[in-house]
Amino acid sequence: MTDPWVALEPGADPAERVRVLHRAHETFTEAGTVPRPVRGVVADSWRRSARAGVHPDGTADIELTDGDLGAWRAEHPLAHVMPLFRELMGTFASDGRHLLAVCDVHGRLLWVEGHTSTLRQAGRMNFVPGARWAESAVGTNAPGTAVAVDRPVQVFAAEHFVRRVQPWTCAAAPVHDPHTGRLLGAVDITGGDGLAHPHSLGFVQAVARAAESQLALLAPRRPDSGGPGLATLGRDQAVLTAGGRSVRLSRRHSEILVLLARRPDGLTGDELLCALYEDESVTPVTLRAELVRLRQVLGPGLLASRPYRLTAPLESDIAAVERRLAAGAVTTALAAYAGPPLPASQAPAVVRLRRRLADGLRAALIAGSDADLLADWAHAPWGEGDLDVWRALVTVRPTASNQAHLASLESELAVPNGWARLEDR
To answer: Which InterPro entries match (predicted)?
Structure first.
């Protein structure tokens, strides 16, 4: 097969492939091994599904209903491109007895539209607005897997992990914020075996790209306010915006600016050395060389020395989250938290900052006991192994999939009930 993300190679017999996949699925659920010809992307997804505690005979849980669903839809960025989705895909879905579905970054279905009889059939397996179809909740499926791996993907018949979904075929593509690159969710086409064709995958991918282009036009980047800004959350390399231009920084330069942005009074060379390097043998000469290179990137006048300091305030996305959290605005703080700051950094001061920020958010979420906010954290990549948050979520939303994930997590960690959280995510 030339494209591993496409379900069937040209000339393949769909009926025979279905039979082979059913046998492979039974082999995996009974023995834990994945025989050929299961695609690598599907095999990896089955393994993730099993680790998440998904049961092959399970079903999706409906987490958002009525007013909660309406409010979440209204606030979601993909609401702006639903008219585009309907224009490009609505007729195709209805005429082909398919469904158009749009999910958020956590795999929750926000819109499911299409042929009336197909909607009724899909409703029997809870493929409905408000249901969580994340891979960690219902296993391999196109919208859930697309957001899990951040790639367009096609899932055919018994490639689905949950048995009651295996009569269906779907193709989905992720949609990103065109300015920040942040994953917003996915657009999906779901129906019968006829969708197991390269064209359906190419179609949803083209629709996702059109949506990103439309978002760029509908929500243009606001003009630079004059002061520099630093974006670090959920990215290994910070982006500095200043003077109308954006610069992607190296990891070390990202770390230096994160630290200097928090210390307007500056840091001495020795303080920076301790903050940046675990290895005590690193010399001041190494640090000075990094600072010389950083000064060249920043341009004249922004970085001063003795002590090292910024000559203008630098607004960071970390500070924005901290201010909202300090004001008790937990919902907006979580909305602004796009992930841990510089997640790959091992600089001691950055590691401490990353932990403090996550701990502050976690503590506020657990204290507030808001099921939706807890679920948003628990189903994010940084929250999948967060034992305390999962326990808090199960307390307020004891769905079967949540309880299964918690049981799997406790078993995997082999810890007694009440043990403290994972130290670092």
So the answer is: GAF, GAF-like_dom_sf, OmpR/PhoB-type_DNA-bd, Sig_transdc_resp-reg_C-effctor, WH-like_DNA-bd_sf
What do you get for the CA distance between the two ends of the chain, in Å? 37
| Mean pLDDT comparison of 71-75, 124-128, 237-241, 281-285, highest-scoring range | 124-128
Structural contact between residues 208 and 88, judged by C-beta atoms closer than 8 angstroms? no
Whether the CB-CB separation of 387 and 413 falls below 8 Å is answered with yes
Beta strand pairing call for 153-156 and 315-316 = unpaired
Sign for the CA dihedral angle at 79, 85, 90, 96 comes to: negative
pLDDT-derived band at 420 (thresholds 50, 70, 90) equals very low
Spell 90-99 as b/e; 16+ CB within 10 A means b: eebbbebebb
Rounded to whole angstroms, how far apart are CA atoms 371 and 163? 28
Task: Please say if the pLDDT value at position 163 is more than 80.
Answer: yes
Nearest CA among 147, 149, 119, 118 for reference residue 133: 147
Residue with token string 């989705």: 85
* Separation between Cα atoms, residue 21 and residue 308, nearest integer Å: 61
Q: Map residue 182 onto helix, strand or coil.
A: coil
Mean pLDDT of 85-92: 91
Q: What is the mean pLDDT of the chain?
A: 87
How far apart (Å, rounded) are the C-alpha atoms in residues 34 and 116?
36
The reply to whether omega before 37 is within 30° of 0 (cis) is yes
Q: What pLDDT score was predicted for residue 415?
A: 52
CA distances from 382 to 283, 355, 386 (A): 34, 12, 8
Q: How far apart are CA 45 and CA 38, in angstroms?
A: 11
Taking the C-alpha atoms of residue 70 and residue 368, their distance in angstroms, rounded to an integer, is 22
Bridge partner residues of 113 (DSSP) = 100
Q: Is 140 helix (H, G, I), strand (E, B) or coil?
A: coil
- Segment 97-113, tens digit of pLDDT: 999 999 998 899 999 99
